[in-house]
From TrEMBL:
Listed transmembrane segments: none
The family this protein is said to belong to: Belongs to the bacterial solute-binding protein 8 family.
InterPro entries, per the entry: ABC_transptr_periplasmic_BD (IPR002491), Bact_iron-sidero_bind (IPR051313)
Domain Fe/B12 periplasmic-binding: 69-324
UniProt lineage: Bacteria, Bacillati, Bacillota, Bacilli, Bacillales
Record keywords: Signal, Transport
A GO CC term attached to the entry: outer membrane-bounded periplasmic space
Annotated compartments: Cell envelope
Originating organism: Paenibacillus radicis (ex Gao et al. 2016)
Protein name: Ferrichrome ABC transporter substrate-binding protein
Length: 324
């Protein structure tokens, strides 16, 4: 073979080899680029992580993804969802004019959608929630909620024997049982620390839990058994018989001298009636009044609260008042 022919053959071989390599690279690059016309296909694990399932009184529902804009219509459920790590984007005010003090630190960027029992549906619709959480007190308006967004309707937590039972039920509804148990355990540690500071200082001292509403209400073991059994306060000789159906006894002011407690925890929801009560000599002659041991506590937590944040705030109140 002549040198000229050999050079021509080698040059042709090199050119053909380069073309083959370039073609292969071109195919590889084409395969690695996404097709803009193709629908993205999520992997099973990604799809499963994005789904959000809950169980309520209607059964089980699954949302396509974790809700980013949750709305709650009951204060205790707002408390529950905060504790479970699902702080709502919108919720109702308490029976007072704003969010309860014990929840305010968590609700700086949260929209108000009315008052408990008086939700502003237009405002709720404007906010476009991903999920609405309510309870069976709102059964008659469930359909109105469901037209706005998927709605979880839970059993009325206020009828549970204690906030822990209600909170566990909420945790279970959203598959967060372990988180709920951890929150309850943390509360137990908080209580144990408070008991260590208070018990010996108040043991044997009588305590009355009094709420001024449209009448004078004397609360007992149905709501405040833990004050007596765990913190060491004694029950006055005259003590109310309570039950889930009757959580307090209406008290005649003439009975006050028979109760005559060492301490009064006062939940005042009616200034007019309280002012009238404090004008009576029967009130002025009580031991707790004469010794300046009538302690006002917030209605939002001590009466309206039914969740872990409210419960922890009550423990903080006790430490503030009695661990002196």
């Amino acid at each position: 073979m002549s040198r000229t022919l050999l050079r021509t053959f080698c040059s042709a071989f090199i050119i053909i080899s380069l073309l083959v390599v370039a073609t292969a690279c071109g195919k590889a690059n084409t395969n690695s680029m996404p097709d803009p016309t193709a629908s993205p296909e999520a992997s099973p694990s990604t799809s499963q992580e994005a789904a959000f399932t809950f169980k309520d009184t209607k059964g089980e529902q699954t949302l396509d993804k974790q809700p980013a804009r949750i709305a709650t219509t009951v204060t205790y459920l707002t408390d529950h969802m905060i504790a479970l790590g699902l702080t709502p984007a919108s919720t109702v005010k308490s029976q007072n004019q704003d969010f309860p003090l014990y929840l305010k630190p968590f609700l700086n960027q949260v929209d108000i959608i009315g008052e408990q029992g008086k939700v502003d549906f237009e405002k709720l619709l404007d906010l476009q929630p991903d999920l609405i959480i309510t309870d069976t007190n709102s059964s008659d308006i469930y359909d109105k909620y469901a037209k706005i967004a998927p709605t979880a309707i839970l059993e009325n937590g206020y009828v549970a024997p204690d906030w822990q039972t209600a909170f566990r039920a909420t945790g279970a509804a959203f598959g967060l049982e372990d988180k709920a148990e951890q929150v309850i355990q943390d509360y137990g540690k908080h209580m144990d620390e408070a008991i260590a500071q208070i018990h010996d200082k108040v043991a044997g001292k009588t305590l009355m839990v009094l709420r001024i509403r449209n009448d004078i209400r004397y609360y007992g073991d149905m709501d405040y058994k833990w004050l007596y059994d765990q913190f060491g306060f004694s029950r006055p000789a005259v003590f109310p018989v309570t039950s889930p159906e009757s959580r307090y006894e209406v008290l005649s002011k003439e009975i006050l001298p028979e109760v005559d407690p060492d301490y009064i925890l006062l939940i005042n929801d009616n200034d007019d009636i309280y002012s009238e009560l404090t004008g009576f000599s029967l009130w002025k002659n009580l031991k707790a009044v004469k010794n300046d041991q009538v302690y006002s506590v917030a209605s939002d937590s001590w009466f309206g609260g039914y969740g872990p944040n409210a419960a922890n705030s009550m423990i903080d109140d006790l430490v503030r008042l009695f661990a002196k």
